[in-house]
């Protein structure tokens, strides 16, 4: 028989609404095949969202049922056979528990079901149930699985570190009631609402008349498969010229936003959403805020986009421990992704998911490590985790979130999920000019001591600034903690598509204080690959921008020559052109092009010499007036750039002439 591949979109809405379990999907397709295929003999291949793979060979006769409604109620019954059982070994106030899984012979396990011959709907239902309950080898990764506690409350596995599953209860559960638990095959789902609203980590609407969404998606859905994703080929404009030029975000990418100033980062995230929603933009925005949600909710109201952004907030449970808060934050991040995925896969929409912040993931991981040590001893934990590093297990934990971004192929709806992940690092704790005594470095590795001796012999002071330049750790407890945090960020970077890095040393010199050396976007490239994350219009203007900024920065303190003065002048013009405060609303693509053309063509030089520098009132007013003037004079040209995202030679000439006429006034 010839195996056929087909989409079951025509029944997916019905199946989702009735919460049909994935393990019963082959039976549903067997008794209700797509009408276009007729009722001839065929083969069905269905891949479960879990690790199961089922091949159902069917000699189909005409079904005795006329509608899907007659077969789904029988199929939708939950399979209540647990795949794992365990005992609670640690409780954390706030409904979070560690469950040690049993390893006895009574443990139910999974395998791929055998090939079954089905000829009618009754047999289909019976066979699917039998296959789901009698299979067995290993339950695999349990993250996202449904959990039932012995006292009746339910939950979800947030993290699985064999042989312990860490579970967050879905309702307010006191620690003394959490004793035993069973884990089931099906995933815990989140209900997705058509309209933007405020929900908790389990998707329950807060202060909303609507309590059930029209779509469902597993909270901890698996990351997209390679066969389902397409190349990154269009930008998700942030409205911040410096970011769009130096670290552009492509639709379907994940991007880290590294900063010590969370409030500022939130402002740029707000500008990103406002840019995507400008002029009726159709991007589905989802924002997970792990704490301090009142500020974000107020900002959404202030900017008039509260009814266009789905916000995931912490629940109102009292007395939550830090570990329970961290587990809730991890679940919130997963729920935000699930909501974005539902829009992308079910509606073919482009989704923007912002996680503010992922710092709690590290707190949860460290808490699970401590639990493993408490229960099994230090030797049960791999060396990387003992030292606070990134083991392969930890990388897998983070990747289950970071890698959920995707640009889906047309066959999967053509939608996308773009992830912006905020993470914070401590501010430098010492003054850059603080001088350290050589004796403080006693006991350091030989290479460090060699560098210290070399600096001392040459009479170079051991200041914090000089030590950082040659990567020598600053001898202070606070700096040690910061260094550890930076190492963790490096681990995250290795899993991501890029990072937007804000440098404290650039504060007061430029806005945003983006480090052009550490802020990059990574995309797949090759001889047969046409993949870009930036807008073609900006690409035609800013080629060489990173090099220009780097060369000027390296000239700090260098001998003043005509060439160095020219380089520094260009840098000052570019910094002025790209100056934007967080929360200012974001620019149109055409406005970013105008600002950068003005800088590169030297139109800003005289103004800078007259005091209109980056960050000054005169500088801000100059750029505001310039953009308004050109936007009015060349409105049609500006609209064409925004719509096509490209800059033709003709449009470039028109903008240059308009800029020149502004400064000639």
TrEMBL record:
Keywords: Hydrolase. It holds the Pfam family ATP-synt_ab. It comes from the Eukaryota. The keyword Acyltransferase does not apply. Its EC number is 3.6.3.14. One of its GO terms (molecular function) is ADP binding. Residues 239-427 form the ATPase F1/V1/A1 complex alpha/beta subunit nucleotide-binding domain. Gene3D superfamilies: ATP synthase alpha/beta chain, C-terminal domain, P-loop containing nucleotide triphosphate hydrolases. It is an enzyme of class 3 (hydrolase). GO terms for cellular component: proton-transporting ATP synthase complex. Belongs to the ATPase alpha/beta chains family. This is F-type H+-transporting ATPase subunit alpha. It comes from Fistulifera solaris (Oleaginous diatom).
